[in-house]
User: Which sequence fits this backbone?
């Protein structure tokens, strides 16, 4: 029995609801995009069957009702009556209606809505709606999730080569809609998940709300500077910008403040001098706090002389800033030594001569200490610290510039530097010679 005969047979029984149910079922195998002629024949039989039932011509509202009358497949959400709005006859109105649902519905519900709307659209009207919808998304940046944007792109064939759409431009439109969606209060959980993908730390819902407020609300600079002293704030806010897929020199995400984003985005660059500034402020505050605590303990003790007490206070105050400066200098020296020849700064001969010159200087200092009979715990710790630093730099350099930069480091040379400093200095010279033989032809 053909599809038309089945509808006419049901029409003879006068059951208009049965005709609608059968028509909705037959539409699945007679789509207008797949076989336009079969769809036209089926639709004509459906009109005639309804006329026989005394219902007159078909309207779009009856068509939506017929689709909803069909029992849904398992695990497929159905549209409620409030979502089934009358179909718009203007492409712009239809596009705005789709955007309204795309911001609130899930991908399955949105896909079902698009299927229902397409039943009454011609192919040309469907193309006009797609272009109008894409233009609206580009101009207004409405909140649309990634899944819903992919549903729209699949429904209107935006990835079709024949449309000649720039894929980078389309990806930029999708990113801005995704940014606006993640900034919605009801989508903060998705933003928190994206943050955890960018960072190893965890943010609570309150922390996410606070970070979004720091980026969206206009605040005075002194308040931002106070917040930036806290390491957690200076770390979490740039990672939240990364979760929003924002990079410097890109278009600002919808709803964020340009001055706030410009202030906090600097902390996302590890080489920016803002890290040195606020690191120095943190260490200075910690040093002052330790100095005050030490001063209280020293002056409350009657056994400590004023001169010795002043020295103790000075050491306690300068210990943390001095250690931080030494660590910063060691990291900068390590980056300089491990940089590729094309990226390195300064004369090439200076980089190559640093390690042997430093090894000779440390070895000569240790020999002089033994010759003069100078001994003590402090000198022993300094000797091993110098040997450890030279060995670590030589090991890291030969590994970073070798055939396998991501190989696991060997800890035995570092252990040797603690047990036998002179042997570790000789081992660092061996690593330097190995790197020299590998990269002799690439020196500038």
Assistant:
């Amino acid at each position: 029995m053909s599809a038309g005969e089945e509808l006419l047979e049901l029409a003879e029984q006068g059951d208009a609801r049965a005709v609608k149910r059968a028509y909705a079922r037959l539409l699945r195998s007679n789509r207008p995009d797949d076989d336009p002629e079969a769809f036209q024949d089926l639709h004509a039989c459906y009109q005639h069957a309804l006329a026989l039932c005394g219902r007159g011509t078909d309207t779009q509202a009856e068509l939506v009702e017929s689709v909803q009358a069909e029992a849904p497949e398992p695990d497929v959400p159905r549209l409620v009556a409030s979502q089934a709005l009358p179909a718009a006859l203007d492409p712009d109105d239809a596009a705005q209606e789709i955007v309204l649902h795309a911001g609130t519905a899930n991908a399955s519900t949105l896909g079902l809505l698009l299927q229902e709307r397409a039943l009454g659209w011609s192919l040309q009207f469907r193309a006009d709606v797609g272009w109008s919808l894409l233009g609206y998304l580009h101009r207004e940046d409405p909140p649309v999730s990634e899944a819903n944007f992919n549903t729209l792109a699949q429904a209107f064939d935006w990835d079709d080569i024949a449309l000649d759409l720039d894929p980078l431009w389309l990806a930029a439109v999708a990113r801005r809609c995704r940014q606006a969606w993640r900034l919605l209060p009801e989508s903060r959980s998705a933003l928190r998940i994206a943050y955890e993908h960018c960072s190893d730390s965890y943010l609570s819902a309150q922390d996410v709300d606070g970070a979004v407020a720091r980026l969206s609300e206009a605040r005075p600079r002194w308040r931002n500077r106070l917040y930036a002293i806290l390491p957690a704030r200076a770390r979490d806010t740039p990672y939240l910008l990364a979760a929003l897929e924002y990079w410097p020199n890109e278009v600002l995400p919808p709803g964020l403040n340009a001055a706030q984003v410009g202030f906090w985005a600097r902390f996302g660059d590890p080489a920016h001098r803002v890290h040195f500034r606020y690191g120095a402020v943190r260490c200075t505050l910690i040093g002052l706090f330790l100095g005050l605590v030490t001063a209280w303990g020293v002056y409350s003790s009657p056994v400590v002389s004023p001169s010795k007490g002043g020295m103790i206070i000075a050491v306690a105050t300068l210990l943390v800033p001095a250690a931080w400066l030494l660590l910063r200098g060691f990291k900068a020296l390590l980056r300089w030594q491990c940089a590729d020849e094309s990226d390195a700064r300064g004369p090439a001969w200076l980089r190559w001569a640093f390690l042997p010159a430093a090894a000779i200087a440390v070895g000569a200092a240790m020999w002089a200490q033994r010759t003069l009979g100078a001994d003590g715990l402090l000198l022993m710790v300094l000797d091993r610290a110098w040997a450890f630093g030279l060995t670590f730099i030589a090991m890291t350099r030969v590994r970073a510039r070798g055939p396998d930069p991501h190989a696991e480091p060997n800890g035995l040379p570092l252990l040797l530097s603690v047990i036998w400093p002179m042997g570790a200095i000789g081992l660092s010279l061996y690593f330097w010679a190995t790197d020299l033989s590998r990269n002799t032809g690439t020196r500038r």
About this structure: Residues 55-88 have pLDDT under 50 and may be disordered. Residues 306-338 form the longest helix (33 residues).
